[in-house]
Each structure stands twice: as C-alpha cells, then as structure tokens.
C-alpha cells in the first residue's frame, strides 16, 4: 500500500520539461512544481483527515505537547519483517535517521529492560573487576559522534538474482544516528585492563544473549563507545536501551545491544555468532571469520526501485558510506556506465558516517541505467558487481557492496537490475 502511494507522489513531483534550463526557467519550474504537487498530495490524505480540514488561519492551533509527534500527514514507515525492519531511505532528508525510523535487527525480540535494575559487568583479564549501574556510567566523561550502522546482511540480494524491489527493501538495513556514551577505553582503564588482554567478549542481556569477540585494535580503543544516548535522548529500546556497544565502521552484529557484560581475554572467544553465522563463505568452500569492517558502498535513493519518473529535471540523490573512514568522491553515470560525473557531496562529510550526494539531471525519456560508485580516503573504490563476485563468488550472504544499477524504463518505472 505504501509503495503504491510512493509511486503516486513521485509522479507528481516533476517540473515540466524545459530546455535549456536557465535560472529563470528553473525558478519558474520550481513554482509550478509546488503547484503540481499540492493537489496529489492532498489526494493521498485519508478521507477522515480531509473531512475536518479547515482553514488553519481561522482557528486556534493545537496546544503544546509534552512529547512531540510528526505531522499526521507524514506516512514514512519502516518495512517490518520477522526479526528486522528497514529504514525508508528514499524518503529521508539529510544524514541523520530519525530514531523512530532507525532499522532494527534482533535475534530474539526487543527486551523490556528497567534501567534501574540493569548492570554492566567488566571482568576477565583486568585487575579490578567492576559492576556498573547505568547511573554510575553516566558520571564518566561523555562523548558524542555521528556514525552509521549497517547490518552485514544489508544488500544481500546482490548475491542473487535481481528482484524488483524498493531501495528500502534492498538496502534499508543501514541508518545513521548521533550516539552518546563513554569511550570504551575509559571503562577499560577504570577496570585496570591487563597487558595480555587483546580481545573482549561483549554480551547482550536479551533473550538471544548475543555474544561477540571484539579485537582490541588501536582503532577500537580510540573509537569504541558504550552508548546510552541516541539523537539527543536515551537509546530507543530497539537500539539497545539502556546500553549498547558502538564500534563505528564494524558490521551491525558486533554492535551488541542491551550490553551487560564485557570479558577481557587473550584470544577470540569463538561464539556461535562468529563461527556458525556471520562468516563469509568463499568460492573454495572456506569461510572468512572476523571480516568486521563494512567496506565503502553507495546507493542512489532518488530515483530508485518502483518509483516512477516523468521526463525533465531531477536531482539524483543518494547516500555513500565507508566503515574505514570518509567518503572522498561519488561518481554517477546516467548512461549505463559510458560516462561518469562527480556528484556533489553534502557537508558535513564525516568518517564512518552516511554522506549525502547529489547530481542535477534531465531525463530525456529514453531507457537508461543509472549507477553510483564511491571512493573512501583509503583509496578504496566500490567494486562493480562483476568484480566483487569474481573474488567472493556467490555463496556469501554478508558484506555485499557492489555497485547498484537502477534501470529506467521508457514509461519512467525504475527497476533493480544486475548488469
Ligand atoms: N544483544 C543483541 N545485540 C545485537 C543484536 C541482537 O539480536 N541482540 N542484533 C545485532 C545485529 S545482527 C545488528 S545488524 C544490529 C542492529 O542494530 P539496530 O537494531 O540498532 O539497528 O544489532 C546487533 N546487536
Ligand atoms: Mo545484522
């Protein structure tokens, strides 16, 4: 139902074709764009909402509310599956994902945890084993940073036959938040971590009791956080309330939610989450373990799967991110890879964070394929699907970051294709 509505409102959002596009025409086009989008937007409103539509300049407005809600006219939702839900990337603005639309992935539901009763235990190779309440943790110096999170199973359909799905469905297991908490290293110092400690087990307090081994590399010691805040308020229950481990750039799974225990050791703990699952099966039947970093990826969100275009001006928009650092360039092709143009990156461009890119484009009504490819500040460039599969085969279900192709058919319908 939502997808249908999306197609409708998309088709309303087009300024009439004008050529050449000069500033005056662009402004005129902008004005008519408003005029055009006004009526179909109302057409999408439910009958009961319309029946009490009154001139808002003639009646006093609503009173203040103690906790805000979005406008009832806004309908973007997560796409809910059995044990996950995806972010509606095609509908978002900027780079911060509203907490209510952050993707979710949980292996045995979202636990209801009373923060007053929650504890974090730190033990193993430490001289001072410690147990903290949440309130005690909040007394440590706090840090905030913006970072993306991505499930390593995101975009996994790329390994398979192309399906006619939306960008939310294909790539929506990634979101960005501003996270607040304590540096992991601060807590490890407080517990007097021993020299021999090179790995750390992190355990969640949910019914899955998910456990992962974290290598204590310099990057991890510099960047890992134990978080209690998300986008200016407490973590959402779905994101790990009251505490979660944040390892910027690492696959979603190791960012343990509902964190209750950290055990220091000198070797990986080989939990089922890093042996039976979350390993990358290679063509020769061997599997990579601990492939933790999410490599650079970019995806065009507008236009994207199942949307419908009209000929004329469009601003191509998408997101790019890299688990290794900052995005440095995003190139876009509108002619199936024959030519590439540099897209503009929207500031701020932050390390290990979603970065929005844009490119103005006039669609001439001819069938074509559009793609984006990004590079990060390690010099790594997002691979084509073909080159990725040449190395990795197709047995994997994790860490797909090949270039996404959207085919635009003559009737304006956008389809997910593999080229
Ligand atoms: N305790 C616990 N932590 C967990 C999980 C879980 O099921 N239990 N799921 C993991 C997986 S697979 C992912 S992708 C991320 C998802 O984080 P989010 O739901 O905040 O988006 O959390 C990870 N941390
Ligand atoms: Mo995940």
Structural class: alpha+beta
Count of distinct structural domains: 3
**Which word captures the global form?**
globular
List each distinct ligand once. Answer: ligand MTE, molybdenum atom
CATH topology of the largest domain: Sulfite Oxidase, Chain A, domain 2
Strand fraction equals 25-35%
**Amount of helix:** 10-25%
Biggest pleated sheet: 5 strands, mixed
Highest-level CATH class of the largest domain: Alpha Beta
Name of the CATH superfamily of the largest domain: Oxidoreductase, molybdopterin-binding domain
Number of helical segments with 4 or more residues? 8
* Strand elements, count: 24
Strand order of the largest sheet: 5-4-13-8-9
Mean pLDDT: 90
Task: Please supply descriptive tags for the structure shown above.
alpha+beta; Sulfite Oxidase, Chain A, domain 2; Immunoglobulin-like; 3 domains; 8 helices; 24 strands; globular; binds ligand MTE; binds molybdenum atom
């Amino acid at each position: 139902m939502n997808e249908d509505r999306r197609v409708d409102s998309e088709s309303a959002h087009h300024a009439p074709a004008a050529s050449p596009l000069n500033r005056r025409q662009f402004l005129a086009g902008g004005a008519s764009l408003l005029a055009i989008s006004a009526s179909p937007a109302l057409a999408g409103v439910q009958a009961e909402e319309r029946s009490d539509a009154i001139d808002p300049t003639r009646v006093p407005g609503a009173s203040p509310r103690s906790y805000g809600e979005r406008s009832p006219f806004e309908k973007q939702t997560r796409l809910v599956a059995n044990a996950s839900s995806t972010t509606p990337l095609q509908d978002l603005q900027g780079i911060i994902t509203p907490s209510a639309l952050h993707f979710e992935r949980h292996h045995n539901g979202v636990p209801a945890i009373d923060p007053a009763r929650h504890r974090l235990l730190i033990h193993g190779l430490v001289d001072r084993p410690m147990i903290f309440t949440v309130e005690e943790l909040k007394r440590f110096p706090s840090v905030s940073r913006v970072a993306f999170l991505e499930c390593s199973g995101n975009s996994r359909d790329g390994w398979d036959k192309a399906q006619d799905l939306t960008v939310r469905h294909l790539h929506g297991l990634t979101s960005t938040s501003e996270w607040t908490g304590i540096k992991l290293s601060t807590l490890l110092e407080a517990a007097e971590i021993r020299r021999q400690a090179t790995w750390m087990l992190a355990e969640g307090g949910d019914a899955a009791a998910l456990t992962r081994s974290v290598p204590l590399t310099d990057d991890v010691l510099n960047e890992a956080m134990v978080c209690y805040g998300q986008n200016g308020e407490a973590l959402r229950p779905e994101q790990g309330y009251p505490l979660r481990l944040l390892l910027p750039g690492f696959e979603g799974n190791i960012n343990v939610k509902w964190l209750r225990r950290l055990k220091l050791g000198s070797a990986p703990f080989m939990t089922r989450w890093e042996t039976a699952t979350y390993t990358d099966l290679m063509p020769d039947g061997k599997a990579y373990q601990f492939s933790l970093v999410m490599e650079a990826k970019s995806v065009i969100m507008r236009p994207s799967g199942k949307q419908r275009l009209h000929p004329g001006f469009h601003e191509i928009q998408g997101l790019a991110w890299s688990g290794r650092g900052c995005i440095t360039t995003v190139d876009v092709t509108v002619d199936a890879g024959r030519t590439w143009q540099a897209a503009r990156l929207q500031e701020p461009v932050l390390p290990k964070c979603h970065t929005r890119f844009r490119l103005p484009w006039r669609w001439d009504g001819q069938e074509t394929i559009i793609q984006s490819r990004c590079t990060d500040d390690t010099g790594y460039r997002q691979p084509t699907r073909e080159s990725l599969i040449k190395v990795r085969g197709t047995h994997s279900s994790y860490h797909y970051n090949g270039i996404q192709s959207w085919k635009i058919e003559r009737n304006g319908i956008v389809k997910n294709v593999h080229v």
